[in-house]
């Protein structure tokens, strides 16, 4: 009767990168801790007895949500105003972002055709446009709205212009990056044969990058809807301004209704954007 010796267990090698991962975690903690201290991050205050009591009283006022016909009609009007503000701001942002992305994109630069490098004037013009895009997107739409409310007064006009300014900078920068990362063969061929930038964009770069451009545009439209609600807290109109008024009056039932509407609005925007992505993918 023959016996077979058991197979030796495979030796599992130690992770060769464990020291690097441990060092990275230690560096991360050393950098993060002073930031938390500087920001006065104190989450334990949420569990203080007084904070919990105030939270309980405030949440108790949420039930039942306000549901009178007059109030619901007001909320519907404010919601539609929010959607209109976001959509109008995005439309104005596109009017500025598309030409600036053409000017700042090297792939669509006529000055580089047949040369190793673009001329100094072309580089200066391109850099000036990029600096303008940096300026526009550096200031958050909430800050633009706060400034514009002082100029044009309360209402959705400030919100529309604020979204247009900030999102123009964001869209122009990302559009230029997407166009430059796409295949440049078709654009170069069109430009070398005398085509203009717009024709090179429409027939050369756009078919290559259309799906990515559309996906990012829809995503920014979703962000504009959420941002338009936030801007209402500084007087830019829409659902946010109504929510701010209810919070100041401590009307929890009204705030509950508007929070439900806001969640449904964001969910609907996400559904629409998903449908459009599948449609144009």
Report on this model:
The chain is mostly helical. It has one domain (69-280): MetI-like fold (Orthogonal Bundle), CATH 1.10.3720. 74% of the residues lie in helices and 0% in strands. It has helices at 18-38, 49-60, 69-104, 120-138, 141-152, 156-181, 185-192, 197-231, 238-248, 252-280.
List keywords for this structure.
single chain; mainly alpha; 0% strand; MetI-like fold; globular; 10 helices; 281 residues
Question: Which helices and strands appear, and what pairs or packs with what?
Answer:
Layout: H1 18-38, H2 49-60, H3 69-104, H4 120-138, H5 141-152, H6 156-181, H7 185-192, H8 197-231, H9 238-248, H10 252-280
Q: How many separate structural domains?
A: 1
Number of beta-strand segments: 0
Q: Can you say what the CATH homologous superfamily is?
A: MetI-like
Order of helices and strands: HHHHHHHHHH
* CATH architecture verdict: Orthogonal Bundle
Q: Using only CA atoms, what is the Rg?
A: 27 Å
3D shape: globular
Protein structure class: mainly alpha
| Proportion of beta-strand residues | under 5%
Give the integer mean of the pLDDT values. 81
According to CATH, the fold-level topology is MetI-like fold
- How does the major sheet shape up? none
Query: What is the count of helical runs?
Result: 10
CATH class: Mainly Alpha
Span of the ends, CA to CA: 68 Å
């Amino acid at each position: 009767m023959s016996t077979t010796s058991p197979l030796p267990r495979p030796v599992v090698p130690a992770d060769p990168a464990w020291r690097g991962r441990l060092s990275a975690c230690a560096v991360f903690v050393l950098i993060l801790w002073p930031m938390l201290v500087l920001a006065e991050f104190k989450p334990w205050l949420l569990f203080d007895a007084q904070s919990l009591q105030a939270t309980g009283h405030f949440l108790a006022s949420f039930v039942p949500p306000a549901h009178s016909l007059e109030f619901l009609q007001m909320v519907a009007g404010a919601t539609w105003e929010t959607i209109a503000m976001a959509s109008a701001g995005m439309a104005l942002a596109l009017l500025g972002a598309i030409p600036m992305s053409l000017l700042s994109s090297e792939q669509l630069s006529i000055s580089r055709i047949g040369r190793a490098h673009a001329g100094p004037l072309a580089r200066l013009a391109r850099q000036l446009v990029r600096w303008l895009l940096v300026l526009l997107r550096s200031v958050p739409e909430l800050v633009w709205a706060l400034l514009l409310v002082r100029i044009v007064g309360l209402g959705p006009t400030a919100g529309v212009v604020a979204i247009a300014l900030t999102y123009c900078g964001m869209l122009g920068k990302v559009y230029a990056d997407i166009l430059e990362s796409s295949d440049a063969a078709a654009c170069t061929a069109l430009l070398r044969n005398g085509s203009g930038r717009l024709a090179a964009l429409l027939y050369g770069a756009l078919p290559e990058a259309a799906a990515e451009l559309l996906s990012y545009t829809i995503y920014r439209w979703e962000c504009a809807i959420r941002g338009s609600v936030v801007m209402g807290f500084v007087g830019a109109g829409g659902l946010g301004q109504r929510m701010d008024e209810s919070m100041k009056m401590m009307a929890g039932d009204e705030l509950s209704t508007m929070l439900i509407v806001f969640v449904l609005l964001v969910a609907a925007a996400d559904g629409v954007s998903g449908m459009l992505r599948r449609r144009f993918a």
